[in-house]
Write a structure and sequence with these properties.
Elements: H1 9-33, H2 40-61, E1 78-83, E2 101-106, H3 115-124, E3 129-135, H4 139-144, H5 153-159, H6 170-194, E4 199-206, E5 217-223, H7 229-234, E6 245-246
Parallel strand pairs: 1-2, 1-3, 3-4, 5-6
Antiparallel strand pairs: 4-5
């Protein structure tokens, strides 16, 4: 599903470079960690080298004109709340996130943890879409369903704002968490939602095929608090979309 409009050639070029960066970094990290007995210092040097060299490759391939449209101001259309999980990245479902998606990340893609950032995106930058993206095999969801007493206090503080223990399994808990975050956001942005100045969307990114659509798909499960897949699809916001996945 595309959540943004058609992108320019420059944005597509940037996406390819970003993808290459992520792949190269992943390979570099894997290579650094492979030899048994290798020192942590060597691993760190490998990570730093990959970051520096890939950024150098990006700047070499990107003309300065590319930055002119947003070097002094940002104009995103989406505020997106994502989990900090390294397996979930913007290019998994956006071909042009730069200056288009304002991102707030935290463990468990929660509203309370980054409320200030979210309100900045919606109220200051005035993005018309606020989207919460959960994902399959979420460590925060798994931890929040268990015993938090032995977890370090700072991490426990973030996990305690999640209410997912009533779910039957991890898949249901991940979806429940997204619904809970939408409910919390609705309390803050109800006036804007009622006046159709902002739309709240809850979604799941599934890289394991836990929900049956295939690996790598984005699945819409909530629209302004509505969870019924048929009612979501009936919304005019989804008119004409051929590749949208709705419901689990």
């Amino acid at each position: 599903m595309k959540i943004i409009g058609e992108d320019t050639v420059k944005k597509n070029t940037l996406t390819l470079l970003t993808t290459a960066f992520l792949l190269n970094l992943s390979c570099a990290q894997a290579a650094d960690k492979a030899p048994q007995g290798e020192s942590l210092d060597t691993t760190i040097k490998g990570v730093i080298s990959a970051l520096v060299e890939d950024n150098a490759a990006f700047t070499a391939a990107t003309p300065e004109e590319h930055f002119h449209g947003f070097q002094d101001v940002q104009n995103p259309r989406v505020t997106m709340v994502m989990c900090s999980d390294s397996r979930v990245q913007m290019d998994n479902f956006s071909q042009g996130a730069e200056n288009d998606i304002f991102v707030a990340r935290n463990i468990g893609n929660q509203f309370a943890t980054t409320q200030g950032s979210i309100e900045y995106g919606v109220d200051v930058l005035k993005t018309p879409v606020l989207m919460f993206v959960g994902h399959s095999h979420c460590g925060a969801v798994k931890a929040a369903r268990g015993d938090l007493s032995q977890i370090p206090s700072a991490i426990r503080k973030e996990l305690q704002t999640m209410d997912v223990k009533s779910a039957h399994d991890e898949k249901q808990a991940t979806a429940l968490n997204v619904h809970n975050q939408i409910d919390k956001a609705l309390k803050t942005f109800k006036t804007k939602v009622d006046s159709q100045k902002v739309v709240l969307i809850g979604a799941l990114y599934d890289f394991r095929n836990d929900y049956g659509y295939g690996k790598g798909h984005l699945i819409i499960i909530n629209l302004n608090g509505e969870k019924d897949p048929k009612k979501i699809l009936d919304s005019h916001y989804f008119d004409g979309l051929k590749n949208v996945n709705v419901g689990i």
